[in-house]
């Protein structure tokens, strides 16, 4: 296996890869309705692609207000620290932009992953797209 690299993606140029990954993870695996997965924020968001060699295997996005979301890794690459690499890139980009507070809506089963990265749960559990979520926040020092 090659080393995983993460790069800032271009929504218009990398759209097919971003869509392929998110459709596989959220729509096919988790049964999220397509109309809930795709929103108007995608066009303005900063997107990240994690690649093994030249092959994109994960993606995430950062909104201008510090919200990190749509973190998704293809099934065969899970457990290989791809999610960590994506989150580290998104957090670093947020901090570079002076966004000292990063937020996300985490699927409950993934909350421990985000806690490892310094996020804290700040809400009760709620359903989003039929999946239990919690709001989480991380403050940069």
From TrEMBL:
Domain N-acetyltransferase residue range list: 4-141
Coiled coil stretches, renumbered: none
Domain of life per record: Bacteria
Pfam families: Acetyltransf_10
Gene Ontology molecular function: acyltransferase activity, transferring groups other than amino-acyl groups
CDD domains named in the record: NAT_SF
Record-linked SUPFAM superfamilies: Acyl-CoA N-acyltransferases (Nat) (SSF55729)
InterPro entries, per database record: Acyl_CoA_acyltransferase (IPR016181), Bact_Acetyltransf (IPR050832), GNAT_dom (IPR000182)
Keywords: Acyltransferase, Transferase
PANTHER family in UniProt: ACETYLTRANSFERASE, AMINOALKYLPHOSPHONATE N-ACETYLTRANSFERASE-RELATED-RELATED
Protein name: Predicted N-acyltransferase, GNAT family
Protein source organism: Pseudomonas segetis
Top-level taxonomy: Bacteria, Pseudomonadati, Pseudomonadota, Gammaproteobacteria, Pseudomonadales
């Amino acid at each position: 296996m090659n080393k995983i690299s993460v790069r800032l993606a271009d929504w218009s140029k990398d759209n097919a890869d971003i869509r392929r990954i998110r459709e596989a993870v959220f729509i096919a695996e988790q049964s999220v309705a397509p109309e809930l997965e795709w929103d108007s924020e995608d066009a303005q968001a900063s997107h990240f692609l994690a690649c093994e060699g030249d092959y994109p295997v994960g993606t995430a996005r950062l909104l201008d207000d510090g919200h990190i979301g749509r973190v998704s890794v293809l099934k065969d690459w899970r457990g290989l620290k791809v999610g960590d690499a994506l989150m580290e890139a998104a957090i670093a980009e947020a901090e570079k932009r002076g966004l000292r507070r990063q937020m996300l809506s985490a699927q409950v089963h993934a909350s421990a992953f985000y806690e490892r990265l310094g996020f804290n749960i700040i809400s009760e559990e709620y359903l989003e797209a039929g999946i239990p979520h919690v709001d989480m926040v991380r403050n940069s020092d």
